[in-house]
Amino acid sequence: MLYEWIKALHVISIIAWMAGLLYLPRLFVYHCEVAAGSDTSERFKVMERRLLRAIMNPAMIAAYVFGIGMIVLTPEWMKQGWLHAKLLFVLLLTASHMMMAKWRREFAEDRNTRPQRFYRIANEVPTLLMIGIVIFVIVKPF
């Protein structure tokens, strides 16, 4: 029963984390359209900060805690290739998260130099990583 609770909490954490990873770059796209220092820009800064700090960071930490909990309860997974591939993609997802945190800081300091197109492309990275993770976990191709 403990494993099922940990798994459920892991999935809930991943859903919250992914929601943020998919939404924050979208905010950046819209933030690029407004003048630095404008009321709208300041509103985007608040939205971006709250999304990152109140949702994305706690969800990422929870996803890691519950994911590690599942591995502790099923150590035989460590011998399976699908888990290693999944963990690589999770590290890449974490790197994406960290890059978004850096970009958010740049927006907060009115130092963004990237165009909308950059953030539109960056918005696709978490989706592609998520697809890979789901395939590794469900299909277990190796």
List the helices and strands and how they pair.
Blueprint: H1 2-31, H2 39-73, H3 81-108, H4 116-122, H5 125-138
Protein model, in words:
There is one protein chain. With 142 residues, the chain is mostly helical. The chain has one domain (2-138). It contains 5 helices and no strands. The protein starts with a helix and ends with a helix. The model has no long low-confidence stretch (mean pLDDT 98).
The major sheet is characterized as: none
- The secondary-structure element order is HHHHH
**Count of discrete structural domains:** 1
Which spans have pLDDT < 50 for at least 5 consecutive residues?
A: none
Structural class: mainly alpha
Helix content range = over 70%
DSSP helix count? 5
Gist?
This protein has 142 residues and is mainly alpha-helical.
Features:
single chain, 142 residues, mainly alpha, 5 helices, 80% helix, elongated
